[in-house]
Design brief:
Elements: E1 6-11, H1 16-30, E2 34-39, H2 51-65, E3 69-72, H3 84-97, E4 101-105, H4 112-127, E5 144-148, E6 161-164, H5 169-176, H6 191-206, E7 212-216
Parallel strand pairs: 1-2, 1-4, 2-3, 4-5
Antiparallel strand pairs: 5-7, 6-7
Helix pairs in contact: 1-5, 2-5, 3-4
Length: about 230
C-alpha cells in the first residue's frame, strides 16, 4: 500500500475544488490519505447565496467527498489578491495542516480570483518554510505543488498527467450538486453537471478510461516505477 500522505487542496471559492478535482479528492481519501480543503473566500456575495448557505453547502459537499476538515479564510471574494498579508494567512494554514502535497488552481484563467489564488498559494508555500518570522506555527514546505483546472477560459491544454476517476465521478457530481445556491433551475445553469460529466469523459478518453481529471505541474514529475501507469 502507498505511504499515507497529507494533502491540502486550495480553491478561491467554495465549489472550485469540487469542480476541478472532486473525483481526485474522493480517490485520495479512499486510498487512505488525509485530505483538507482550504477555501480562500466564502464565495459571497452571489445572486442567490449567503455566507450561511454557502457554508452549509460546502460542509455537505465535503461530507460527500469524505473530507473531514474544510477551512475558510475571510479573504474578499471578487477582490482576492496576492499580497504579503494574504500570503501569511495561507502560509499559517499550511504550517498548521503540514501537507506533503498541495493542489491549487491552474495559473491561467479569465477569473481574476482564480489567477490570484494560484499565485497566492504558490507564494504561501514558500512563505510557510520561513524561519525568523512572526507567523504562527513551525516552518513547513510541501514537497510538491500540482494545479487543477477550474477555468473560465475554454482552454486547450496538455496536462502533466490525467488521473483515472471513473469510480469516483458520481460522488464528484453529487458534491457539485450540493451548491444549490449556485446551480439551480431558477438560474438555468444546472447543465453544468452534464458539462462536468462530458469534460470528464473527454479526459478519460485520453487515457482510455471512462472518466479522468487533468493536472498540471510546473516541475517535472518523477516516477519510481511504471506500476501505476494506465
Amino acid at each position: 500500500m502507498a505511504e499515507e500522505r497529507t494533502v491540502l487542496v486550495i480553491g478561491a471559492h467554495p465549489d472550485d475544488v469540487e469542480i476541478g478535482m472532486g473525483g481526485a479528492i474522493v480517490r485520495l481519501v479512499q486510498q487512505g490519505h488525509r485530505v483538507a480543503i482550504l477555501d480562500l473566500t466564502n464565495g459571497e456575495p452571489t445572486p442567490m447565496g449567503s455566507p450561511e448557505r454557502r457554508r452549509e453547502e460546502g460542509e455537505a459537499a465535503a461530507r460527500i467527498l469524505g473530507v473531514a476538515r474544510r477551512i475558510t479564510l475571510p479573504l474578499p471574494n471578487r477582490y482576492l489578491e496576492d499580497t504579503v498579508e494574504n500570503r501569511v494567512a495561507v502560509a499559517e494554514v499550511i504550517r498548521e495542516v503540514r501537507p506533503d502535497l498541495l493542489f491549487v488552481p491552474y495559473w491561467v484563467d479569465a477569473h481574476p480570483d482564480h489567477v490570484a489564488a494560484s499565485h497566492l498559494a504558490e507564494a504561501a508555500r514558500f512563505y510557510a518554510k520561513l524561519t525568523k518570522t512572526e507567523m504562527r506555527g513551525e516552518p513547513h514546505y510541501p514537497a510538491r505543488i500540482l494545479h487543477f483546472f477550474c477555468t473560465h477560459y475554454r482552454l486547450h491544454v496538455e496536462p502533466s498527467f490525467v488521473l483515472d476517476v471513473s469510480e469516483q465521478m458520481e460522488r464528484k457530481i453529487e458534491a457539485v450538486a450540493c451548491y444549490r445556491s449556485q446551480f439551480n433551475e431558477t438560474r438555468g445553469n444546472l447543465g453544468i453537471l452534464d458539462t462536468i460529466r462530458t469534460v470528464g469523459q473527454y479526459w478519460g478518453s485520453r487515457i482510455r478510461r471512462p472518466y479522468g481529471e487533468p493536472f498540471a505541474s510546473r516541475e517535472a514529475i518523477g516516477l519510481r516505477g511504471i506500476g501505476e501507469l494506465v
